[in-house]
Amino acid sequence: MQWLRMASIVLLWVSGCRLALASDAGNGLVLANLERTGWPDALATQADIDTAARAEVLVFAKALLASEALDEPELTQRLGVQQMQLKSIRQVRDGLWDRLLNTYRNASTQCDEQAFCPRIRSVADLRQLAAAFTGDISPAHARWASKSLDVHERVLDEQLRVAVLRP
User: Fold this and answer.
1) Does residue 39 lie within any of the structural domains?
2) CA dist list (Å): 151 to 39, 44, 48
3) 106-119 b/e with 16+ CB inside 10 Å = b?
4) Containing structural domain, residue 77
5) What is the pTM of this model?
6) Domain for residue 34, yes or no?
7) Which of 63, 64, 118, 163 qualifies as a FRET site for 91, CA 20 to 30 Å off?
């Protein structure tokens, strides 16, 4: 039953991204054109799905953390906007951190002795874990992490761009 909940969360998140991108006429095809190499392990059990979910959360959190290190001119340039709406950006980021924390917790309920499974209690813990995360437990995972980070950076940029253009 938990895998169904996780699958629903992921599908809702992807649908939300697609809707956000589709609402921006100039960027409606961005998500469809992203190259995406999948998770390197089989997703045969709930534990496998939860491991992949935790890893995806950590990669997205890493992209989110990196975006927070940008100053206003750098973020304005990266998003390709003329002026910044910092309040909207903060609201989107705060909401994303909360959702990432909840998703990570849900995928961590029974993960003893599994990859990417340190227990966390707060967004601050998640930030620390994301900062140190490399996904480098094997060459296949390292390749996945690199490609996944590129995808998550693009998706995050689109979400932040929409927050600026439609506060």
Assistant:
1) no
2) 13, 24, 21
3) bbbeebeeeebbee
4) 2-23+44-165
5) 0.77
6) no
7) 118
